[in-house]
Amino acid sequence: MQCKEIQDLLKADYFDGEASQRDQRQVLEHLDSCGKCRKLEEELRTQRVLFQKEKLQNAPESLWQNIREAIIKEQLNQEENAGYGVLSRLKELFLGQRPAFALASVFTLILCIAIFTGVFMQERQSPVQVNSRESILGYSLDNGNSDLVYGLGTNIEQYFF
Amino acid sequence: MDEISKEILKRASQGDIKAFEEIYGHTSDFVYTLAFKITRNISDAQEVCQDVFMKIYHGLNGFQFRSAFKTWVYRITVNTAINYYRKSARQSKDRLDYDGIIESIPDRRSTAEGAIKSDNEARFNGLVDKLIPEYKACLILREIEGLSYQEIATALKIPINTVRSRLKRARETLLEESGKGLMRDAV
């Protein structure tokens, strides 16, 4: 092998323990006889020692606090969004990209309200009417006091009184 | 960087902050060191770190254990730090002025061995700073984390030959920059 090939191996595979056994042997044989390549190998070793001297640095303590706060904030936002999500899904269901469905839903809703209100009012109206009749009758029956009697001016009134 | 148990990773992916703190404890020094070595700026390194851990937090749910967790962290850290380095508008303004340090230190300022060593370390840091971030990342993963070419290739998602050529180029650059054999004095 020529110096160029040996130096290429020195700067990468040989130096990093990735060279084949055959290449390693050839490099070692070459280094025994070539001062220039031996010098290169020394320089590379020095470089490595200096690089490795720059050890791991400790992350500042405040860093975890910042990350922790960011995560907690995000978790709270997610919880809030989960509640909001139901509303937004309903909104999307009714006001989303289905105008015909939305129209039908609104029509059905109005119809239901109308039916419900109709039935409810009918049920409530009967006793009111009875009560009003009873009250008129009540007034009529125990009205020894003519002052309390209101003149209604109807045929029924005339019949009773 | 130590390997972290699946149990802790699973708990962290479910939002367990204590488990995530444990992951942080195992990985933060490496992530911070790498971020600092690439950005060469303390506040940038801190921002990169925060970004990396938020990415890890978001990505844990989808982590499939097809690759080792630490390989995944290497990749996120290197990519985030390199992107940050490139995007940072302050990169030339606030970065540690190693060029200045190199200029200001005379070759034989002191005969004290300690002073020579620290001078040479500062010089060397200045030389490392001259490397492009991709070269620095490969060199850090190889020299500090002791990863093989295959592991670096997997972590950075690059071909193994690219790893080889980046390491070779990085070492050539350092040798060219050091020039006068000053690095020998440091050891």
List keywords for this structure.
heterodimer; A: mainly alpha; 6 helices; rod-shaped; B: about 190 residues; Rna Polymerase Sigma Factor, Chain: A; Arc Repressor Mutant, subunit A
Give the uncertain stretches of chain A in residue-range form: 134-144
Most strands sheet of chain A: none
Query: How many H/I helices of chain B?
Result: 10
Report how far apart the termini of chain A are.
139 Å
Q: Could you state the CATH homologous superfamily of the largest domain in chain B?
A: RNA polymerase sigma factor, region 2, helix turn helix motif
Overall pLDDT of chain B: 80
> How many strand units of chain B?
0
Query: Distance between the terminal alpha carbons of chain B, to the nearest Å?
Result: 26 Å
Strand content of chain B: under 5%
Tell me what the CATH architecture of the largest domain in chain B is: Orthogonal Bundle
N-to-C SSE string of chain A, H for helix and E for strand:
HHHHHH
The description of the largest β-sheet of chain B is: none
Q: List the quaternary state of the chains.
A: heterodimer
Basic shape of chain A: rod-shaped
Overall SS class of chain B: mainly alpha
Strand content of chain A: under 5%
Q: Which structural category do the helix and sheet elements of chain A fall into? A: mainly alpha
Topology (SSEs and partners):
The complex is a heterodimer of chains A (161) and B (187).
Chain A: H1 3-11, H2 21-33, H3 35-53, H4 61-95, H5 99-141, H6 155-160
Chain B: H1 6-13, H2 17-39, H3 42-59, H4 69-87, H5 91-94, H6 98-104, H7 113-129, H8 133-143, H9 149-156, H10 160-178
Helix pairs in contact in B: 1-2, 2-3, 2-4, 2-8, 3-4, 4-8, 4-9, 6-7, 7-10, 8-10, 9-10
